[in-house]
């Protein structure tokens, strides 16, 4: 079922996203820190998404988006611009679906990120390292290849990130507050 990108997901949407991506993702660890709990005055749970496939939580969102495409949409492939994690995530998700991924990366992108995108089968087009050049190059790729466009900030991606949060907090029936740093921090 393709997610509705025009509205924020409700509980049933979150559970549907979790079920849809479960075969493709790692269940990553949650760690706590007595020192951080003492400093903040609350209980913090740090999600170790650096151990996720593709090295970041973005693989969850990319998987939900790519696996949610219809067969005709998927046949067109996917495209995005990114200097790293989203590029890796989309390339890996597309590889698992068996479809093309066109990735626009700035010419100064970290070599390790470029290597990872290539290893996942992403087709890279390099551009100058400005947002305007990235957008223009992506538009050119889209006009040539007509793929489905993915951005790191679409509701589709956000709705797939939430299953990682509820993976550990769903049973508490308490609201979630999410702080984004280098790690996902959950307050349950």
Description:
The protein has eight helices and eight strands; from the N terminus they run H-E-H-E-H-H-E-H-E-H-E-H-E-H-E-E. With 188 residues, it is of the alpha/beta class. A four-stranded antiparallel β-sheet has the order 1-2-8-7, with helices on one face. Strands 5-4-3-6 form a four-stranded parallel β-sheet, with helices on both faces. Strand 3 (78-81), helix 5 and strand 4 (101-106) form a beta-alpha-beta unit. Helix 3 (58-67) runs parallel beside helix 5 (85-97), helix 3 packs across helix 8 and helix 5 (85-97) packs parallel to helix 6 (111-119). The protein starts with 10 loop residues before the first helix and ends with a strand. Residues 152-188 have low confidence and may be disordered.
Q: Enumerate the strands of the largest sheet in spatial order, edge to edge or round the barrel.
A: 1-2-8-7
Question: From the helix content, strand content and strand pairing, which structural class follows?
Answer: alpha/beta
Number of helices: 8
Order of helices and strands: HEHEHHEHEHEHEHEE
| Alpha-carbon distance between the two ends | 29 Å
Unreliable parts: 152-188
Shape: globular
Strand content: 15-25%
Rg from Cα = 17 Å
User: Count of DSSP E strands?
Assistant: 8
Largest sheet: 4 strands, antiparallel
Look at the structure and give the mean pLDDT: 75
Helicity, as a percent range = 40-55%
Using brief descriptors, characterize the structure shown.
188 residues; globular; disordered C terminus
């Amino acid at each position: 079922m393709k997610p509705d990108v025009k509205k924020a997901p409700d509980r049933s949407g979150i559970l549907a996203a979790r079920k849809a991506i479960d075969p493709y993702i790692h269940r990553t660890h949650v760690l706590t820190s007595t020192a951080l709990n003492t400093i903040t005055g609350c209980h913090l749970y740090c999600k170790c998404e650096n151990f996720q496939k593709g090295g970041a939580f973005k693989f969850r969102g990319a998987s939900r988006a790519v696996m949610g495409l219809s067969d005709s949409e998927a046949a067109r492939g996917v495209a995005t611009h990114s200097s790293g994690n989203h590029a890796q995530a989309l390339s890996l998700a597309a590889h698992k679906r068996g479809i093309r991924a066109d990735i626009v990366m700035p010419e100064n992108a970290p070599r390790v990120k470029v290597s990872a995108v290539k290893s996942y089968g992403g087709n890279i087009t390099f551009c100058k390292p400005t947002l305007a050049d990235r957008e223009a190059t992506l538009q050119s790729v889209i006009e040539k290849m007509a793929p489905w466009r993915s951005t790191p900030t679409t509701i589709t991606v956000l709705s797939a990130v939430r299953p990682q949060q509820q993976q550990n907090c769903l049973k508490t029936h308490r609201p979630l507050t999410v702080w984004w740093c280098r790690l996902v921090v959950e307050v349950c």
